[in-house]
Each structure stands twice: as C-alpha cells, then as structure tokens.
Design brief:
17 strands, 19 helices, Rossmann fold, binds fructose -6-phosphate, 7-stranded mixed β-sheet
C-alpha cells in the first residue's frame, strides 16, 4: 500500500475481518483517495522511467475513480503516457462499438479523456470467432506476465460475490478464459441491455489466479446491495462460492467501502461483539433489538442471562437490564403516532412531531411519480385528512419507465379522435410499433412524462389535494432519454431550492434510499441535502423538519426509526388503490429490480412485516406501519 488510508478500525473491532477494509461515509471521498493512490504510483514509475501496469474494472463502482483520474489529468497534469492497462473482462460475443460493451464503457469514462497511448490499452476482445478465444486468452495472460504483472488491480464486486466475471464456483487457479454468466449477474445487467433476455450469456474474464498475482488489489463497493457479499468475502471462510473471499489470501488487498456496503460487517452490524459498546440510545436499541431476535423474546422479557450469554454483559455495567429494556421499549413505542403532522394542543415532549403550528405546510418530495403513494401513501392520506396544507413535488418525470406499448396505446387513442391528430402522430406510432427499446425521441419521452403526470394527478385527487398543490419538477439530470442519467448540475439544485423557498414548509418528506448510490433516489436525495445545507440559515428553515421515508425495496432498521404511522386494514386498502392509479407501473414494470412482486405487494409486505417486528418486540399489534427517520441538517 502506498497511501495512508484512514484508520481501518482497532484490532479488536476488526477481529472478524480477514481482509484489510476501510470504510468511508461517502463513495466520492473514497474514490478520490483510490485515484490518488493510482496517481502516486503512475508518477513514481514515471520518475523511474518505468511503465505502470493498471488492471481496470467496469461497472458503476469505479466510475468516480475514473472521474477523479480524468480531473487529475486535466487539472493537475497527471500524464498516462507510461500507463499500460488491462481490463478485467468483456461480454462475449460483443462488438466494440455497442454501447453495452466494456470497450465503449472504458473509452467513455476514461480513455477518451486522457493521454494514454491506444496501443497500451488492452481489453478482452468480444468480437473474435469462438475458436480463436482460447488463444486470445493465453496471449492476454502472457502479455501481462511479460510486462512484469499488474501493479494495481481495481475491482468491483457482484452481488453474487464475483470478481471480474469469476462467478461462484470459480477455481482458485483459474486464468483468463471464456465463462458462462450466472443468472444473478445477467439480471443485474438487464437494465443496460433492456431486459435480461438480451444480456449475453458468456464473457471473457481474467481468472482468479490472474487477479491474485497483481501486486496490489483495491476492491470498491458502494451501497447496501453489496453488503452481504462484502461481509461474506471479508469475514466468511475462503469459499469458491464467494469468489471475492479468495482475496483473503492476497498480501496486499484493500476493500474500500462506503458505510452502506460495510453495514453487514460485525463491527457495524453488532459492534458489541467486538467490544465497541457506545452507550447512545440508538446503539443500545440496536443491540437490544438484535438480542430480541436472537432469543425470540420481546424487549421487556429480556433477562440478565440473555445479555450475558450473548456478548452483551458490558451493556450492564452502567444500567440494570430492567432499565435498558424499559428505555429501549419507550424509545420505540414513542415513535408510534397517528398524527404525522403533530397532535394539536397536547404535550409533545415524547411525540415524534411538534404540536404547533397545528396546521402545517408539508412538502413531500417523490423521486419518481409514484414513490409518494408507494412509500408513504397512508401518511400522506392522514396529513391531508388532518387538515395540513400538503404539497407533492415529483422530482423526475420517470418517463423512462413507461413502456413503448403504453405510449402507443395513448397515441392510438388520440389518433382515433381526429384525422389531424392521426396525421400528426402516425410517424411516432410507426416507430413505437417497431421497437421495444427505450427510444431517445423527445416527443415520445414527453408523452411518456405526461402519462405519468396524469396518473399522479389521479392518485393525488383520490387522496384529496388540489391540483395546484402538485408540482412536476422534471429535474434536468434525468432527462437524457436513456437509462444512464447525466450528473446533476446547479440547475437541478435551483429547482429544488426554489420550491422549498416558495413554500416555506414546516415538514419535508423525502426518499432516504441508500441502496443504489447511482440510482435516481440517491441522486435526488443528494441534491436535496446539498440544498438544505445551503439554505439552513434562512429563518423559515429553523421551523422545518425533514423526514426520510424508504422506497419500495428497503425498510429502516427499527433502531433508526423516529416516527411510525400505524395503518388500519382500511388504510392499507386505500393506499393500495392510490398506487393502482399508476397504471403504467403495474404488471410488467420495466425496472422491477430483483423482486418480481408488483410495487403495491412489495410495500404492503414491507409495511406488514415492520408492524409484525414491532409486535414481536412487544408493541401494539397493528395491521401495517409506515416508518420515517428524522434528518437533522
Ligand atoms: C466489471 C466486472 C464486475 C463488476 C461487478 C460490480 O469489469 O468485472 O465484476 O465489477 O459486477 O459491478 P458494479 O460496479 O456495476 O456494481
């Protein structure tokens, strides 16, 4: 290692870890440090008149590292003239010019912006005849060897635990070769290929042995989706079914993680097991909830021996088990309220929201046009029926998620209404009839946006807010006409700042999703957080509380929850109906994730599951719950 990463944790904290790992708050900061390590090595080699051999990865994980390398080249004169690169892998068969090829990816993100010599770029060739692949792989290996091996190998990790395209079951001594891709890997790639059926079933990849021989390995992982694979690789045994675990045998490997990817590591998940007992109420709650699950008991039934027998005796140094139980029980119980906007004219000392002002201005930010009802439909409904002035702002148009057949259906309906309309739309109808792919056509995308806006209005009218309280922001970063979004700019922030400054809300609700750091929800959240920071000194912001909800995929952990809104069976049904107004997002939704359940089923399951968890912990038995975490800015 040629750079001093910040402290990886004490020996005791990391005693379950078999790979050196560093955890950062944000992937941006981590990427900057990794890019810096690479830059230091390139410069050192330049001074010594040597080539620097880099092993490179594709995928979402290294993008910010490449951005920083490009910045270092453009702004700080870092030259890549002595750099020779070897990419980990390429789909097979795959044409270089295809936008899904790793060849294309590397040029878009790195090679076209730096002064690397084209002859120094090596990427497995997906264009070869099948019978030439074997010798190509052998040549690839020989070339790396001849150059003295890879100096730094960058890696991502798949949700299967793969590195490169070495899927579960890969051999420790495998070399560069043609492999068959795992279903999960193909499913993870389906977005870029407009459906799993178009994802190639094969790829050429460097082997585990090729990777292991690199002098230095840096694996990057961001987001909660990676947390399970990461903890298995770092803390589990070396297992061919988790190929990244082979790196436990590498002498100079570092896993660079953001806190979400690290969330399953023992030092984060159950820190008391590694002697890290911070006595904050939240950390006590986390420990007690874990103990309830482990012992199958509710909070108030936990005994001294339950604590002692489960590595938690240190918690009892300052407090009796009875006191801890009660304190944690009250913390969770007090999150429950039927009054998300605050209960007027009562003592609010132990309530999640303030009693006054009795009528609040509320601004719900919804990244896509439907997250509002999917994630907090019942809370939304309560806020309206309790007389608050509720506004919804849909941050993006969500137009990419409207299928061509839905746009076609609407166009065919208009076209039947008049000849003029028919003439106007015939060309679009013809295009739509021929394609299943997302079409980068302004008019089609606009119609798709309008469809989603009208569906949203149907839902907000059903909940009972005037159309004037519904704001369609169509943030520009989303409007690329393709799945890949552009980077947010000051224009996106300005739109968010304006709506907050105009409404001066007492409450803001926003999607606090952290699962996918490059996903739309996270981008929307980052824009909002930046804006909040920039306006926090304004007087109206002193009265503004921000509540984060979770999207369709993940739930807050119980110890993180600050407000829980119970739902009666009827409210569950009403929420379901509100979601149904988003018809284009029903059935074969384009971006369903790994989960084939429809959104309304997912959210109902999630709301019921958290209510059951509360009940198991000893709280009242509710049909379902929507939960929120307060964000202090
Ligand atoms: C890419 C590669 C893969 C990815 C992994 C994670 O060259 O070999 O192993 O690193 O699938 O992909 P992302 O970073 O997109 O989550």
């Amino acid at each position: 290692m040629i750079i001093d990463y910040k402290s990886p944790g004490t020996l005791e904290q990391t005693r379950y870890e078999k790979i050196h790992s560093v955890i950062f708050d944000e992937s941006k900061e981590a990427s900057r440090i990794v890019a810096n390590e690479i830059a230091i090595l390139i410069r050192k080699k330049q001074k010594e008149n040597e080539s620097c051999i880099l092993g490179l990865a594709t995928g979402s994980s290294p993008i910010s590292v490449y951005e920083e390398l490009v910045r270092l080249h453009k702004e700080e004169g870092l030259s890549f003239s002595n750099v020779i690169t070897f990419n980990l892998d390429e789909y097979f068969p795959m044409k270089k010019v295809d936008t899904q090829s790793y060849h294309h990816f590397m040029h878009i993100h790195l090679f076209s912006h730096i002064d690397i010599k084209p002859k120094n770029i090596n990427i497995p060739n997906g264009e070869l005849d099948f019978n030439k692949v074997n010798s190509h792989c052998n040549e690839y290996e020989k070339k790396i060897k001849k150059l003295g091996g890879i100096d730094i190998q960058l890696l991502g990790i798949g949700s299967t635990g793969h590195i490169g395209f070495n899927e579960p079951g890969s051999n420790y001594s495998s070399l560069t070769r043609l492999v068959h891709l795992d279903y999960t890997t193909r499913n993870d790639a389906r977005k870029a290929f407009y459906g799993i059926e178009n994802v190639p079933t094969k790829a050429i990849t460097m082997g585990i042995n090729t990777i292991r021989k690199s002098k230095r390995v840096v694996l990057l992982a961001w987001g909660q989706n990676k947390s399970k694979a990461i903890s298995k690789a770092i803390e589990g045994r070396v297992d061919p079914n988790v190929p990244a675990s082979f790196l436990q045998n590498h002498k100079n490997a570092t896993f660079v993680l953001d806190k979400n990817a690290a969330s399953n590591l023992t030092r984060i998940q159950s820190p008391w097991k590694v002697g890290d007992v911070k006595l904050t109420l939240e950390s006590k709650a986390k420990a007690v909830i874990w103990l309830c699950k482990k012992t199958n008991k509710s909070i108030l039934n936990l005994t001294e021996s339950d604590y002692n027998e489960n590595y938690m005796s240190e918690l009892l140094i300052h407090q009796s088990p009875y006191k801890i139980n009660l304190e944690v029980f009250n913390k969770i119980d007090r999150t429950i309220t039927g009054w998300p906007g605050g209960k007027p004219n009562v003592d609010d000392k132990y309530r999640p929201e303030r009693a006054s002002p009795a009528k609040k201005r509320v601004l719900i930010f919804s990244p896509h046009p439907d997250d509002d009802v999917i994630s907090m439909g019942a809370t939304f409904d309560r806020l309206v029926s309790q007389g608050h002035d509720v506004h919804v702002a849909y941050q993006t148009s969500g137009n990419i998620a409207v299928s061509n057949s839905d746009v076609l259906k609407f166009l065919e309906v208009f076209s039947e209404t008049s000849k003029n309309v028919k003439n106007r739309y015939q060309e679009l109808i013809d295009i739509l009839k021929k394609s299943n792919e997302i079409l980068d056509n302004k008019e089609i995308r606009n119609i798709a946006s309008l469809i989603r806006e009208k569906e949203s209005l149907a839902a907000t009218r059903f909940i009972g807010i005037p159309d004037s309280n519904v704001h369609f922001l169509r943030l520009p970063f989303y409007e690329t006409g393709t799945i890949k979004k552009s980077r947010p700019t000051s224009l996106d922030s300005k739109i968010i700042r304006n709506i907050i400054s105009n409404l001066k809300p007492h409450q803001i609700y926003a999607a606090g999703d952290l699962a996918d750091p490059h996903g739309t929800h996270k981008v929307c959240l980052d824009i909002l957080f930046d804006v909040l920071k920039s306006i926090k000194e304004k007087s109206f912001m002193k009265n503004c509380w921000v509540w984060l909800y979770r999207g369709a995929w993940h739930e807050w952990e119980v110890h993180e929850i600050d407000m829980s809104i119970p739902m009666s069976p009827n409210q569950v049904l009403k929420k379901r109906k509100a979601i149904f107004y988003h018809q284009t997002q029903k059935d074969n939704v384009m971006f369903q994730g790994d989960d084939n359940r429809e959104f309304w089923v997912r959210t109902e399951d999630r709301n019921r599951a958290i209510a059951k968890t509360f009940h198991d912990l000893g709280m009242s038995d509710y049909s379902a719950l929507e939960t929120f975490k307060r964000h202090h800015f």
